[in-house]
Design a protein that fits this description.
Layout lengths: L2 H9 L15 H20 L3 E2 L5 E3 H4 L5 H5 L3 E3 L5 E4 L4 H10 L8 E10 L11 E10 L4 H15 L7 E7 H12 L8 H8 L1 H14 L6 H12 L9 H7 L4 H18 L18 E5 L13 E7 L9 E6 L13 E7 H10 L11 E5 L5 H13 L4 E3 L6 H10 L4 E5 L1 H6 L1 E6 L5 E6 L3 H10 L3
Parallel strand pairs: 1-5, 7-8, 12-13, 12-14
Antiparallel strand pairs: 2-4, 3-4, 5-6, 6-11, 7-9, 9-10, 10-11, 14-15, 15-16
Helix pairs in contact: 2-6, 6-12, 7-10, 8-9, 9-10
The chain binds one RNA strand through strand 6, strand 11, helix 13 and helix 15.
Length: 468
RNA sequence: GUGGCUGUGGCGAAGUGGUUAACGCAUCGGAUUGUGAUUCCGACAUACGUGGGUUCAAGCCCCAUCAGCCACCCCA
């Protein structure tokens, strides 16, 4: 290589780019995202959940084999520097199972867990669907009760109500009841794998009744009469938009287990209705309010293998085809792969980044207005003085930025304006000598002069508090 | 894995075969060295994803390829 080529090689820039499905977050968006996380945290802590954290990287054997083959394929995996086979967590549930099994003696059951963290899935991207995204999980483990089901659902439901969604629908299904229906409809034994049937039923929303009938007809052993009746049961809605449970109950008569599950399910729904509203009218799909609706929809199956009781998913009313922004359900024995101790639980997850993508699409993301003052340093001799002012403000809880281009005061004002500071404290030689400061209102352009340094906290606080 | 669409300076975006590839944003300088936003003037930028082909001539047409987005599958 000639010297010239070597120089050229050195000057060649790496093209700045991101991996597919991985997002950068600019300051304005990041602040909203953090605020959302904090709000979710706050709601969960209020409801008595305890926050935990687990590593992003786990042994591969911990992560694999719990969901389906499909999900196993999506796990980001590699060998670490010590030759260990490791993977990035695919969700927060499986690491939680490991966590619970590992820390049984340190936890008090029933344990109410909150966890907020990023997860990774090597699948194809779509709108609101990334390869790295944040999940906010709530679980109650160590108890199997309708109260626990409700506690998790209520907290998730009420948290989503805090956001400017324009309305959402929380749909409740039950894997257990659905399985009983399928068993009876198709005359299947207890141990028959229903997965293909469940997957077909789960598409009811997308491909319609006839589409599902066609799909199910291809599955051996199912008569069209049986299929038709099952779909009738699932599709029949009462005036409130709920799956009509009366014919379901009579169809399952004699199945004691299923009947008991139905009783429990109805009790759960009554509890849920106590904190929610029902179906909104077609004319006014609750766009003005951010409230949610609660519905029974027995056709919900959810893909993940481990759900056994109640299951739920949540869609935005304004973006019906967008996908679920919050879902979960009950599982019999979360940690069975890690311990002999039986640990039933119920949990759900808010897909924060999908929710944010949805709100962004709708133009409903909150705009964050920074509430901070700015100290402009006009002359170099006032650098220490300006910093003393900034430090005083910060110690007293007043957010403030400071000019970093001492001397070039025009630049400092321009910068303060661009980052949205409503007030600028101005100090230079004169102010330094008299221990004073000027305060400029960036909106009106007015500048009041010669305030005493000793009053800086009070004056700036007062000024800032008048900003909307 | 399957389909559709899109790739033009840092970003957005015009350009439908014919000189020197618009414009806007951003950046930098000046009008204005103790005052921003607004206004005016000026400057800067290795830009047509990559590789072939057709043509006298390609950002534009054809083929391939890569990347991204959207949709299916599945899912938060």
């Amino acid at each position: 290589m000639s010297q010239n080529e070597a120089v050229k090689e050195k000057q060649k820039k790496i093209e700045p780019r991101r991996l597919k499905g991985f997002k950068d977050h600019l300051p304005g968006f990041m602040e909203v995202r953090s605020n959302f996380q904090n709000l979710i945290r706050q709601e969960a802590l209020l409801a008595g959940f305890s926050e935990i954290g687990t590593p992003t990287l786990e042994y591969l054997e911990t992560l694999l084999g719990q969901g389906s083959e499909e999900t196993d394929k999506q796990v980001y995996r590699f060998e670490d520097h010590g030759g260990r086979k490791v993977g990035l967590r695919f969700d927060l549930t499986i690491p939680f199972a490991r966590f619970v099994a590992e820390h049984q003696s340190d936890l008090i059951f029933p344990f109410k867990r909150l966890q907020i963290g990023d997860v990774w899935r090597g699948e194809n991207t779509q709108k609101g669907r990334y390869r790295e995204f944040c999940q906010c999980d709530l679980d109650i483990i160590g108890v199997d009760s309708v109260g626990a089901d409700f506690e998790v659902i209520a907290c998730l439901y009420q948290t989503i109500a805090k956001f400017n969604t324009g309305g959402y629908a929380f749909r409740l299904g039950n894997r257990n009841i659905l399985s009983s229906l399928i068993r009876k409809s198709f005359n299947l034994g207890e141990d028959i794998d229903q997965t293909p049937i469940l997957i077909a039923l789960d598409k009811l929303d997308k491909i319609g009744t006839q589409g599902v009938i066609d799909l199910l007809s291809k599955i051996a052993g199912s008569s069209s009469d049986a299929i038709g009746y099952l779909l009738q049961l699932l599709v029949n809605k009462d005036p409130d938009g709920n799956t009509d449970l009366v014919p379901v109950r009579s169809f399952l008569q004699g199945d004691e287990k299923a009947t008991a599950e139905l009783d429990r399910f109805e009790q759960l729904y009554r509890l849920c209705r106590s904190i929610s509203k029902g179906k909104s009218s077609e004319a006014n799909p609750s766009t003005s309010a951010n409230e949610g609706e609660m519905h029974i929809d027995l056709s919900i199956a959810r893909g993940l293998g481990y759900y056994t009781g109640v299951v739920f998913e949540t869609t935005l009313n304004l973006l019906p085809g967008f996908g679920s922004i919050c879902s979960g359900g009950r599982y019999d024995d979360l940690a069975e792969r890690f311990t002999t101790r039986s640990l039933p639980g119920v949990g759900g997850s808010i897909g924060l980044d999908r929710l944010l993508a949805g709100l962004e699409e709708l133009g409903r993301l909150p705009v964050v207005v920074p509430k901070k003052a700015f100290v402009a340093i006009v002359t170099a001799d006032a650098l220490e003085y300006g910093n003393a002012i900034a430090t005083t403000l910060r110690k007293n809880g007043v957010a403030c930025d400071i000019g970093l281009t001492t001397g070039k005061v025009g630049l400092q004002f321009k910068h303060a304006d661009r980052i949205g500071c409503p007030f600028v404290i101005v100090v230079g030689t004169d102010e330094l000598n008299s221990k004073t400061f000027n305060l400029k209102n960036m909106k009106t352009g007015e500048e009041s002069k010669s305030h005493s340094f000793s009053q800086v906290v009070q004056i700036v606080k007062t000024a800032m508090s008048n900003i909307p």
